[in-house]
Amino acid sequence: MTYNLGENNSIFNTYIAELRDVQIQKDPMRFRNNLKRIGEIMAYEISKTLHYQAKTVETPLGETEMNLVENDIVIGTILRAGLPLHEGFLAIFDRAQNLFVSAYRKHHKDNSFTIEVEYLSGPSLTGKTLILVDPMLATGKSMVLALKALQEQLGKPEHIHIAAVIASEEGLDYLNARKGNNATVWVGAVDPELNAKAYIVPGLGDAGDLAYGSKV
């Protein structure tokens, strides 16, 4: 199942509009803060689908029953653009464990590229709820490779939530065909195409560069 949170009118779309705006995105602190706020909203929406259990909470004046999340959550991020989004998720799921994946585009002389997963660090995923976040879902290949590497090396989660701020139609189709039956996809917007360099159009540009500065 795929949830597109941008389909409904809310302040959520204002944050995405500011990420896209060529003038506003010149402020890297605001760009990072908007990614964080989007992460917080996405985390809240995901929280509605989790498992809950009634527990007794003692107050200064007595006791009350509260339904509390019982999922064992791990928040995973594809470096480096995903860090502000990760921070937003962690602000909501503040007791979650964390993992990090280094994936990049390896460019070739014929102007093609392959996705390389270089590094990952995190806890066992067996039986847990994995939330894997990345601002942009362009071709979908880095997300699929990251999922494969994580499950091969860290175990199979009970359920996977994949969150991207902006996805291309092509990338979303690629991911949905390969993610497996135990995964739910969350996006903020779906854009129609990729350009010759496999960037999302209209998209917003390079999220990593906008958040942290250009790279060599």
Provide the fold topology.
Layout: E1 2-4, H1 12-20, H2 28-47, E2 52-59, E3 62-69, E4 73-79, H3 83-92, E5 97-107, E6 113-121, E7 129-133, E8 136-137, H4 141-154, E9 159-168, H5 169-176, E10 183-191, E11 193-194, E12 200-201, H6 207-212
Helix pairs in contact: 1-2, 2-3
Compact overview of the structure:
With 216 residues, the chain is α/β, with parallel strands linked by helices.
Structure description:
31% of the residues lie in helices and 35% in strands. With 216 residues, it is of the alpha/beta class. The chain has a single domain (2-212), classed as Rossmann fold, CATH 3.40.50. Strands 1, 4, 5, 6, 7, 8, 9 and 10 form an 8-stranded mixed beta sheet that branches. Strands 2-3 form a two-stranded antiparallel sheet. The protein has a two-stranded antiparallel ribbon with strand order 11-12. β4, α3 and β5 (97-107) form a beta-alpha-beta unit. α1 runs antiparallel to α2. The model has no long low-confidence stretch (mean pLDDT 92).
